[in-house]
């Protein structure tokens, strides 16, 4: 049985429809059109936007939650 693959930046399962981009370790939301990882702040902003909509929180709270979450991801753990 194959282990599920997750984006090292945001944790999105890479086997979800339309999640996989050109990178083997990052989803299409965390990479540019060439498969390169986007800037940390761009990913944080995108994640915060998603959190704000999902959890119905204000922008400042969403940014804090995104930052906290990102620190647990392999790509950002050392930042």
Would you mind describing this structure in some detail?
Helix content is 35%, strand content 0%. It has 79 residues and is an all-alpha fold. It has a domain at 40-70. Helix 1 (40-55) crosses helix 2 (59-70). The protein is globular, with a radius of gyration of 13 Å. The relative contact order is 0.16.
Provide a quick synopsis of the model.
This protein is mainly α and 79 residues long.
Task: Describe the secondary-structure layout.
Blueprint: H1 40-55, H2 59-70
Helix pairs in contact: 1-2
Give keywords.
2 helices, 79 residues, mainly alpha, 0% strand, single chain, globular
Query: SS-based structural class?
Result: mainly alpha
Number of strands: 0
- Rg, rounded, reads 13 Å
Order of helices and strands: HH
Helix content estimate:
25-40%
The low-confidence parts are none
Strand content: under 5%
Task: Specify the overall morphology.
Answer: globular
Described by strand count, sense and barrel closure, the largest sheet is: none
Termini separation (Å)? 33 Å
Overall residue-averaged pLDDT value: 93
How many H/I helical runs?
2
């Amino acid at each position: 049985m194959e282990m599920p693959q997750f984006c090292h930046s945001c944790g999105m399962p890479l086997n979800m429809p339309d999640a996989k981009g050109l990178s083997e370790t990052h989803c299409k939301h965390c990479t540019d059109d060439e498969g390169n990882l986007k800037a940390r702040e761009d990913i944080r902003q995108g994640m915060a936007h998603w959190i704000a909509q999902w959890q119905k929180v204000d922008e400042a709270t969403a940014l804090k939650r995104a930052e906290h979450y990102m620190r647990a991801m392999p790509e950002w753990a050392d930042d």
